[in-house]
Amino acid sequence: MRTHQRSPWLALVGLACWLGFCSPAFAGDTLNAVKARGVVRCGVSSGVAGFSAIGSDGQWLGLDVSVCRAIAAAVLGDARKVVFTPLSSQQRFAALQAGQIDVLSRNTTWTLSRDAGLGIEFTGISYFDGQGILVHKRFKVKHAHELNGAEICVQSGTTNEKNLATYLATQRIRAKIIVYDQFEPAYKAFFSGRCQAFSTDVSALVSLKSSKSAHPDDFEVLPEVFSKEPLGPAVRSGDAEWFAIVKWVLYAMLEAEELGVGQSNLTQAARSDNPAVLRLLGQAEDIGKPLGLPRDWVATVLAQVGNYGEVYERTLGRQSPLQLPRGLNALWTKGGLMYAPPLR
Predict the structure, then answer these.
(1) Is the whole model's pTM more than 0.70, yes or no?
(2) d(CA 262, CA 66)
(3) Which of 5, 56, 178, 310 is the most buried (most CB within 10 A)?
């Protein structure tokens, strides 16, 4: 039997990779690159109200946008120093892999195949969502099982397409799926009457109903939610420093809400006698040092962007046109799932 000897060159390559020298080109350098460039490059959606969309003043608004602004505030001291790149579902991962953006904050679902197979890493969950179905009230459909014979529009290349197919099959609902390559043509086909229903994440359905329909009250979201869609920011694999920064910026915003510290009361909070509050604001302990950030980075984030609750209410909640209740996105102390590891 012929034996195959391993090339010394391959052995050296293997050793180099094991030592970490085969990491992506940007690995370990993102923070330095952001500082040198003076802006954070953030990949967002091409327009989902409440998450990332351009407002009437020409500025990007939304929960995903606010996460990016918080990162810029923490790293550069200025939440305005962000360049937003709108990306389609098909473009988003390639843009992150290629180093065209520093962080992807684009209502993207955290899944095993994405987290382990694309050279990217999700840093946390900024919004707990689930998939649903939007219908026109004129069809008098109140539940998904009444959709037999209907045509349902959905976008391809997303978790939504597979989720919908699985749900219809398991529930034995004989509906036809109409697939569109892009998000905009898919929902426009629904609103024009091409399909009797449209399926995507519930938050996006509420957003579309509110912002893309001339008569929002003519539509309703069915009560069935048939998937888990944990949405959150992602970064390229291999850069532990940048991964930690993006992760802890989100957690700091959650911790601040739990401690009752935010944009609205930051001055008073700085005089608090609560050790956890003083540690959060960098007064009792330097929690910026392990991340390579200024001592007061959390205070800067809160002053310029706000805590998670403040951001939620103005982008998705009571201060927004969407009026989405917190639900699963409430703090764990208030019946939700939002929970930050200790900042100490």
Answers:
(1) yes
(2) 14
(3) 310
